[in-house]
Amino acid sequence: MSARRRNRTLQKLTNCAEPNLNPGYHAAARLVEPVGRNRCKFASDLIRLITRLLRGVVLRTDTRLATFLDSGMTSAESLPQSTDRTLAGVALMLGFCLTAPLLYVAAKLASASVPVGQITAARFVVQCVLMAPFVWIMGLSLRVARGALLILVFRSLLLLFATFCFIAAIRVMPLADALAIVFVAPFIVLLVGKFHLGEDVGPRRVGAALVGFVGVLFVIQPSFAAFGAVALIPLGTACAFAFYILVTRGLSRRMHPVALQFHTGLIASLFCVPTLVVAQGSGSELFDPVWPTEIAFLWLFGAGFFATVSHMMMTYALSFAPSATLAPLQYFELPVATLFGYLVFSDFPNALSLFGIGIIIGAGLYMIHRERVAARQLAAERPAPPI
């Protein structure tokens, strides 16, 4: 099978078997759901049967394509949201909440002897190296549409800036304080969606977002008194990550998540590495690279490894379970980060910071609740399609 024919075949199969990457799937799912679960199950079984037949045809000619079909068949089964798949999504999201703080721990440990810019570069270089074999095994195309290339670069730069700011902050701040400030990102996304993108956002959700900002002030106040302007750096992470989420909304439907993670690591590395080369010998505390010690090498690899694993867990969790089910679980990351910060660095938020963290979590959970209520009302008002 020629490379060109194989790429065309993979694209067709991906469009059929990857519902989260096919924009038409969501419109079709909304039409099928009111009719009943039996028809959804029939469609899922039919897609699974066709995928298995195709796998049998190509098994002798292209093993990598057959492997990709196996992974695509798993995604095809997500048409009906079964209990098992929802539980798998919840488990993966909890896995993200447990592994993502390990990225922060590794980065903070490395920052004792390695510049922030070098830690940031290591995080993306390791991600690129780890994702490359999966791209090859799954037979994914690395071609990027011309219209999506600039968006992909912009997305990578946003994540690069967010990562750099956060590592610069946790170098001196407790993990829980810095992470709590970053959790203002969903509030920024909501406000940008309402006032800039014209999305339908009710006054209660806007109020919850404003209350969340008040909680951030409670966290920043003692941190600012203790660490100075560094306490404001996580706000840069929150803003960059908010726009990163907005950009990812559209881009995730056009690219496979594995390829998206690989390209993100590659593009960020192409910006980071030359910057370190130019900064070598400059004496810059943030960018002048050093030769790490043996244990520092481990922390640098750990930052990239846990970043890759945690983000892939979150990506596939969203493909297994509805985002409305998973959204409240993300706040589990805060107590986990607090625990790791206490066990490894003996850092623990003071009473005022804990009060602010509680306000942020409460406002976020209330905002998620109101989004669910609005979604149910919209679904009830939508007329049933003709049978």
Provide structural commentary:
- It is a single chain.
- By secondary structure, the chain is mainly alpha-helical.
- The protein has two domains: 3-76, no CATH class; 83-381, no CATH class.
- The protein is built from 16 helices and no strands.
- Helix 6 runs antiparallel to helix 12, helix 7 packs antiparallel against helix 11 and helix 7 (146-170) crosses helix 12 (257-279).
- It starts with a helix and ends in a 6-residue tail after the last helix.
- Residues 9-80 have low confidence and may be disordered.
Got a strand count?
0
Which shape, going by the Cα principal axes? Answer: globular
Q: What is the CA-CA span between the terminal residues?
A: 42 Å
Share of helical residues? over 70%
Largest sheet: none
Query: pLDDT below 50 for ≥5 consecutive residues: which ranges?
Result: 9-80
Give the overall pLDDT as a whole number: 76
Instruction: Quickly count the helices.
Output: 16
Overall structural class, as computed from helix and strand content, comes to mainly alpha
Radius of gyration: 22 Å
Series of H and E elements: HHHHHHHHHHHHHHHH
Q: Please give the domain count.
A: 2
Binned strand content: under 5%
In short:
The protein is mainly α. It has helices at 3-17, 23-32, 37-58, 63-76, 83-110, 116-137, 146-170, 175-182, 185-195, 203-227, 233-251, 257-279, 294-320, 323-326, 333-345, 351-381.
